[in-house]
Specification:
It catalyses: uridine + phosphate = alpha-D-ribose 1-phosphate + uracil. One of its GO terms (cellular component) is cytosol. It comes from Acholeplasma laidlawii. By secondary structure, the chain is α/β, with parallel strands linked by helices. The chain has a single domain, classed as Nucleoside phosphorylase domain (Rossmann fold). The protein has a five-stranded mixed β-barrel, surrounded by five helices. Helix 5 links the parallel strand 8 and strand 9. Helix 2 packs parallel to helix 6. The longest helix has 14 residues. It is globular.
């Protein structure tokens, strides 16, 4: 049956693996560019979702929205009520180090956050949560096979996009080793723990807090294809 945020009645129309970009238009781009025999599985609040096939394998893609409360709702409903086993977040991130350049691909080994999401969920009081190791291993092996360089490390999941202290990222980088910042993975990893499912996060560097370089909104929607191809070509 449908949930409050996903209108699909038949859960069999959602694949066991869901790719989850923040932007629903990125989900639409992936479905139209890479998938065959596509059916739309959600349109509630314009949070677009699709199921199709890629090289003969069924796969779904659905937007998560921005921030932990949003991905927290959608990923939990997918895990809990639609029998999804794997969610791979494919998103954008801001670099905390000049060792990362625009368009570089990062895979989160774990994420550190100030958020109370995991504690409020009753999952963990920890401020650092890990991705599913076996899922990360498969994604890294795919990236190697495709010849796509990928940096693995700690990332920062933040509740705040605009910080009054713009240099605070330097302390976070020094104290927690966070290579870059995004706003969703901590909640996704918490939900995977809560439901006994698998979660991973692959990011493309969209801007740099160090060099102040940045990509455009259109580029973030359409040009971050390497992380998409890694996720799509990983057999689960």
């Amino acid at each position: 049956m449908a949930t409050p945020h996903i209108e699909l009645q038949d859960k069999s129309l959602i694949a066991k693996t869901v790719l989850m970009p923040g932007d629903p238009l990125r989900a639409k781009f992936i479905a139209e560019t890479y998938l065959k025999d596509v059916v739309q599985i959600n349109g509630v609040r314009n949070m677009l979702g699709y199921t199709g096939t890629y090289k003969g394998r069924r796969i779904s893609v659905m937007g998560s929205g921005m921030g932990m409360p949003s991905i927290g709702i959608y990923s939990y409903e997918l895990f809990k009520f639609y029998d999804v086993e794997n969610i791979i977040r494919i998103g954008s991130a801001g670099a905390y180090t000049d060792k990362l350049n625009l368009y570089d691909v990062v895979i989160a080994k774990n994420c550190w956050s100030e958020s109370s999401y995991a504690k409020t969920m009753g999952v963990s009081g920890r401020k650092k949560l890990s991705a599913t190791k076996k899922l990360n291993t498969k994604l890294k092996n795919t990236a190697k096979r495709l010849g796509i360089p990928m940096t693995e490390g700690t990332i920062h999941s933040s509740d705040v996009f605009y910080r009054i202290n713009g240099d605070e990222y330097k302390d976070i980088y020094e104290k927690h080793g966070a290579l870059c910042v995004e706003m969703e993975s901590f909640a996704l990893f918490a939900n995977a723990l809560a439901t006994g499912k698998n979660a991973a996060c692959i990011l493309t560097i969209s801007d740099s807090l160090v060099t102040h370089e940045a990509t455009s909104a259109e580029e973030r929607q359409n040009a971050f294809t390497k992380m998409m191809e890694i996720a799509l070509n990983t057999k689960l």
